[in-house]
Amino acid sequence: MNTVLLSLSFIVALGVSLSLTPWIARTARAMGMVDRPDGALKNQEEPVAYLGGLAVFVAFLVGFSPFYELDRQVLAILLGGTLVVLLGFLDDLGNLGPSTKLLGQTLAILIVMKAGVAIKIVFLPPLITYPLSFLWLLGMTNAFNIIDIMDGLASGVAAIACFFLFIITMSSGQTGVAYMILALMGALLGFLRFNFQPARIYLGDAGSLFIGFMLGALGMVGIYARANPVAVLAPVLILGVPIFDMLFVMTVRWLRGLNPLKGSPDHFALRLRRWRLTAGQTVLLSYGASLLLGGVSLVMVYGSEKLAAGALFAVSLGLMLSALLLWKIDMNL
């Protein structure tokens, strides 16, 4: 791989994001396109611009496109990601219905799957891997939308996930994927400068859906199981924080007899706040969890099968214990 071009891709995406994000924030505020506090799930002190996803998207495109020749799969991922951004932008402008969002996301997913972007597990037939790929990408697209409830949370966790995905793609020689991941990481880090507490701008649905879709797609095309078959689960750990929150929230809502798709203060981050952590401490703890899970994923990818299985068991046990402790936090106080 050309390390100079890779570095340029990251630097350009970072620079564009740092330059473009404050301009978009000012423009959004001038146009009244802000997220206003509602005293329920939105408790920021004042309205915050919410079109930051456009800055991430543009910075990613500018940082990636000039440095790598586009192939069929890369073009499909870009096309699907663009469709998701458009869908999220329309939702930011005026709430789209759940069926419309699902239809748009389904179309974007089918575009990338038609180009051959799918989970590849040698011992599973396409009859299983294709539906699994669809559910994975649909879940990841919405997981970052669900976790985007606190300043810097979704964007920071996504940047950390990019870091670990980049390490794995570099070692496996996947040039196109490595460029895309590095450009996305640069765009996210530039945006995070203005999104960390106190946030001057939010991702909005355009941003959270986009990064979820991109990380879900890029996570599928990585090569993980070269050392052992257990490592196919590495992307689940790399993206473990948003996956954990999505499954935890949906389970809690179902157990409470609520619609799993309806908003409620059941997120792990809000429960940690109830546990008397500050917003900043909660976000930093989430970063720490992402780093830990990413580190374990590298152990799984490069270690023996026995070591990978042991690491997976330890993480699974830790996550179940964490879910139990979070469940016990009373959110009705």
Give descriptors for this structure.
333 residues; mainly alpha; 2 strands; 71% helix; globular
Compact overview of the structure:
With 333 residues, the protein is an all-alpha fold. The protein contains 13 helices and two strands, in the order αββαααααααααααα. α4 crosses α5 and α6 (153-172) runs antiparallel to α7 (175-195).
Give a verbal description of the structure.
The protein is mainly alpha-helical and 333 residues long. Helix content is 71%, strand content 1%. The chain contains 13 helices and two strands. The protein has helices spanning 3-30, 52-64, 72-93, 98-114, 126-147, 153-172, 175-195, 204-221, 234-238, 240-255, 268-274, 279-302, 305-327; strands at 34-35, 48-49. It has a two-stranded antiparallel sheet. Helix 6 runs antiparallel to helix 7, helix 6 (153-172) packs parallel to helix 12 and helix 12 (279-302) runs antiparallel to helix 13. It starts with a helix and ends in a 6-residue tail after the last helix. The model has no long low-confidence stretch (mean pLDDT 88).
